[in-house]
Amino acid sequence: MERLPARHRERLIPRWWVWTLLAGMAAMLGSAYGAALGVGVGWLVGFGCLVMLGSLAWVTSPTIRVDGDGLHAARAVLPVTCISGVRAVSSGEIRDLRGPGADGRVFVTLRPWAATSGVLVSVADPMDPHPAWLLSTRHPEKLAAALTATMAP
Predict the structure, then answer these.
(1) pLDDT digit string (tens) for 86-103?
(2) Are 83 and 46 found together in one domain?
């Protein structure tokens, strides 16, 4: 089966301040070990911690993609035929949609350290346990437009 080109692709990598925070945590741990066990051990522990935290932040950053198959959020796929509606949502709306009165059945891929806005995708399949998908994105209008264009015949 031939794969169609993506209409939208975005990786939700953490923003600069998260990387700064991770580097600070690694430096603190390296300093503590360096003070206790020596400078060489401190540098080794700090560098190892930095590599480990950076790798963890990178690996856990999901990719949001729209192509001819549908909407891909990390490893989950929602076929185009199952999408009934798309709406861009602001950070305030996301808070309401995931707050105390939220529907617990909604499929959620939120990364607030990467993006504060998002998209709410309504699911048309009555057999699907998720009535909607709520996704973080830095470009909600572009993602909504790509999904709408994919839904059109």
Answers:
(1) 999 998 898 888 888 888
(2) no
**Are 48 and 70 in the same domain?**
no
What number of other Cβ atoms are within 10 A of residue 8's Cβ?
20
The structure tokens listed for 10 are 């975005």
* Whether 38 contacts 27, CB under 8 Å: no
4 is a domain residue: no
Helix (H, G, I), strand (E, B) or coil at 98: coil
Alpha carbon distance 107, 94 (integer Å):
13
Q: Give residues with Cβ within 8 angstroms of 11, minimum separation 6.
A: 61, 62, 63, 64
Task: Give the model's pLDDT for residue 2.
Answer: 46
Phi, psi of 33 (to 5 degrees): -70, -35
| Tens-place pLDDT, residues 122-133 | 999 889 999 999
**Alpha-carbon separation of residue 78 from 21, 72, 88, 91, 129 (angstroms):** 34, 6, 17, 23, 12
52 with 76, same domain: the answer is no
- The closest alpha carbon to 9, from 59, 50, 69, 98, belongs to 69
Give the number of other Cβ atoms within 10 Å of residue 84's Cβ.
13
Structure tokens at 67: 């192509």
